[in-house]
């Protein structure tokens, strides 16, 4: 396993998926950095947070000390009857944000794929692609429709433009992530799902961490994502999309993203303020991530493996504990 710079505030969970629980190794009260351990976290907890069990709670709270989850997959898409017209339906979570509690775990489901972002993607389709998509829709071939749309999106939208669109069009969702992190007793918190790296950039920049050290953190995490397609393809198959064999993770992700934020918004702090976060909230986020670690907190840098069917799957995530960011300065 590649060596990470010591930081008791930042833990990388590179494999947090499983179809069935595994036996967890007995953890000592304080686990050393770079230990390789196996923690049993169920597939349903990671994907469908509202189905967390007592077993999940035991491993999260007692083994890892985690009190909160921020799932960037967002809440499940569901529709309910309109209150003003029972014959019509509306999306239950149109802002892609849901917060609730399971047992004593605080769950925040927040998707950066906002309605505004998705509408912008749709508008980026060419007339030819829209015509092809409409044709498949009219004959009921929804899988082909999705394939046409995805191919067009990947062709028309580069990764940096995609990040820029998230920053511009998903401000309420990014604000919700930081509002969750500003709450009392939110840490230790597990953040996982799509575009965790963008949240990492914003968080560490807010803390004043140097760009090269954020970039190193990003690269150390991404080099362990070789099995991520196995995890993602389970969803792609469910939605009728072709499987991916690999992901193109740009080496310049961090400097390019921060350069864009500096040019467009004059810095991360200005950007976060512009989306409606107050100075008190931003200070609360920084305080939550800087409080001294207590004697019961775990210092773990793990590469964890969970079995999904007969294959191992991976996804990257971050765990922040109440501890110092001193390694970055």
TrEMBL record:
Pfam families: Y_phosphatase3. InterPro entries: Prot-tyrosine_phosphatase-like, Tyr/Ser_Pase_IphP-type. One of its GO terms (molecular function) is phosphoprotein phosphatase activity. This is Uncharacterized protein. It comes from Hortaea werneckii (Black yeast). The lineage of its organism: Eukaryota, Fungi, Dikarya, Ascomycota, Pezizomycotina.
